[in-house]
Amino acid sequence: MLAVKKAALFIGTIKRNSGEVEMKYIRKILLSGTLFFNKWFFIFLNFRNSTRISRSVKMKNINNIELGEKSRIRDRVYLYSYRDGKIILGKNVTIEDYVILEALNKSIEIGDNSTVNQFSIFRSWGDIKIGNGVRIGPHVQIMAMNHIFTNSDKYIYQQGIEGSGIEIGNNVWIGGNVTILDGVKIGDNCVIGAGSIVVKNIEENSLAVGNPAKIIKKLNFYI
C-alpha cells in the first residue's frame, strides 16, 4: 500500500510539473511496487520546478542525472550514465531532439541558459564542462575520449579507452557539424565555425574555423 500511495503522489507531481513524461513507467511502477519505483520517485522530485521531459526520452542510471529548473528535454533524447559518470544540466537548459549524452566514466556538465541542438553527441571518458549561455548547433560531436593503440600486439579494441576532458567557456557559439576532440579547451566568448574540427585550445574572444580549427579573428566581448 505504501508503494501505491507514493505512486499516486508521484503521478500528481508529474501532471502538475512536467506533463510529458512517458506514462508507461508509471504503469510499471503501480504494478511492481519495487525499488525501481523509488528511483523514479526520487528522480522526479529532483526534476520538478517546471522542468519538461518528452515522453520519448530514455535514461540510464537515473540517480546520476540532475536536471535544473525550467530545463526542457525534447523528443528521442538519450541521457545515459555509466559507472561513475554523471549528467548535470543547469537552469533553463534545452536539449533538442535526438541528442545523445553518454557519461561513460566522468561527468557531462552543461551550464545555465545553454542549448544543444538536434543530433549532437557527447561522450565523456574525461569530464565535459560546458559554461553558461552556450549555443551548440546540430550534429556536433564532443568526444572526451580516445582509443589506446600503442600496443602493436593487440587489436585496438582490446587496449582500452582514455580521456583527459573537454572544457567550453561561457557565451560560446558552436556551429553545426563541428567536432571537438579530447583535451581541448575553448575560452569564453568564442565562435566556432560550422564544420570545423577542433584539436587544439582556442583562446577566449576568438572566431575559429577550419580543419583543424584556427583562429581567424579576435572578437570584442566585455561580458
UniProtKB/TrEMBL annotation:
* Classification via CDD domains: LbH_MAT_like
Coiled coil start-end: none
Q: Name one Pfam family in it.
A: Hexapep
Q: By its UniProt entry, which PANTHER family does this protein fall under?
A: LIPOPOLYSACCHARIDE BIOSYNTHESIS O-ACETYL TRANSFERASE WBBJ-RELATED, SIALIC ACID SYNTHASE-RELATED
This chain belongs to the protein called Transferase
